[in-house]
Backbone:
């Protein structure tokens, strides 16, 4: 679902709860899990000699690393705990988020129409809403997507997230700020307003797939195994290393780094294996279902091998819809509101939702390329 209906006023509200449930700190003590070695599984570490690196991708060496919240991470939330050891085989990952140019090539070949561009079917939509939700006026039920309200100049209550989000009719990947906007001259910007189905369609065309959450974290760690950030553990490097909010959220963005909102890919330094923008800029979709209890239900006494996430989705904040894990935070993340510029940060996004700060990147395995 791309928006939530207010039962009293029939007005349009935001349902992409992933963007709104960012608490800045969780002071509960982190407990380091038991660490065991992977003895019976042969990890694919090195890139096979007979497999060429696809254009625009890089090999992520297979390794065992610490997934989830790190002990020294003051912003870690309960859904990131406990940290646990995982082993992930080597794979290829896009060095950047999928760009407008790349997505445009896909659309030109396939004539694909994204969810944000499609007419809204009330009969389908109401099945995922509380029973008895009244139908809004047809003038509201128009194709569009969520955009950040750039005209916010005051906030009374930080819990009222609708103050800085707007349902924009006509907003989609070709018109990121509404029907009067364009992506002309922005070929190297991340494509946005992409829902899960859209990303999966692109992956099928490109012979790729979305990363699992564990694969995403493995790539974000680069050559390391237990970093908080893609560049290490130094939080003071944030403004230099990632496109995040600088100033007072959401009323003033000081744009110290030169980018007030979304930035072109490769605008910041890559991590240790050459992957760009894993933190900040736009949230990135993964294939894992989002379940706030998933980590707490794991057996952390042993190393998990190539985990694929929860078997069932669960989010108390969005009980009517199935959500997928998104990673990395975006240009809107700030310590006072959404400190999701960390490798372990994880939130949920409903399958048919998109916004102006959600995109994706793809992965490929040697088996897929043979």
Residues:
């Amino acid at each position: 679902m791309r928006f939530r209906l207010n039962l009293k006023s029939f007005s349009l509200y935001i349902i992409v709860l992933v963007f709104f449930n960012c608490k800045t700190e969780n002071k509960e003590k982190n407990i380091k899990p038991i660490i065991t070695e992977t003895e019976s599984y042969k990890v694919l570490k090195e890139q096979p000699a007979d497999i060429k690196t696809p254009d625009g991708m890089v090999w992520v060496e297979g390794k065992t690393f610490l997934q989830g919240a790190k002990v020294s991470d003051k912003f870690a939330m309960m859904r990131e705990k406990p940290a646990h050891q995982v082993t992930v085989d080597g794979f290829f990952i896009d060095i950047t988020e999928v760009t407008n140019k790349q997505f445009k090539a896909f659309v030109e070949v396939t004539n694909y129409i994204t969810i944000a561009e499609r007419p809204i079917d009330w009969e389908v939509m109401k099945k995922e809403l509380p029973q008895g939700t009244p139908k809004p006026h047809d003038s509201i039920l128009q194709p569009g997507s969520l955009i950040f309200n750039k005209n916010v100049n005051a906030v009374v209550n930080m819990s009222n997230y609708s103050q800085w989000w707007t349902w924009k009719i006509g907003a989609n990947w070709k018109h990121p700020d509404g029907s009067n906007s364009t992506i002309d001259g922005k070929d190297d910007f991340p494509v946005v307003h992409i829902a899960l189905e859209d990303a999966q369609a692109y992956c099928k065309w490109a012979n790729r797939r979305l990363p699992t959450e564990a694969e995403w974290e493995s790539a974000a760690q680069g050559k390391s195994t237990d970093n908080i950030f893609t560049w290490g553990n130094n939080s003071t490097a944030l403004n230099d290393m990632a496109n995040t909010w600088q100033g007072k959220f959401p009323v003033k963005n000081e744009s110290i780094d030169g980018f007030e909102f979304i930035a072109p890919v490769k605008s910041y330094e890559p991590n240790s294996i050459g992957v760009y923008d894993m933190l900040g800029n736009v949230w990135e979709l993964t294939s894992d279902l989002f379940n706030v209890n998933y980590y707490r239900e794991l057996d952390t006494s042993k190393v998990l091998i190539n985990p694929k996430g929860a078997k069932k989705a669960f989010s108390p904040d969005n009980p009517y819809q199935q959500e997928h894990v998104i990673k990395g935070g975006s240009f809107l993340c700030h310590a006072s509101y959404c400190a999701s510029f960390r490798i372990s940060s994880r939130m949920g996004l409903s399958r048919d939702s998109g916004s102006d700060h959600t995109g994706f990147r793809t992965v490929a395995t040697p088996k897929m390329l043979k």
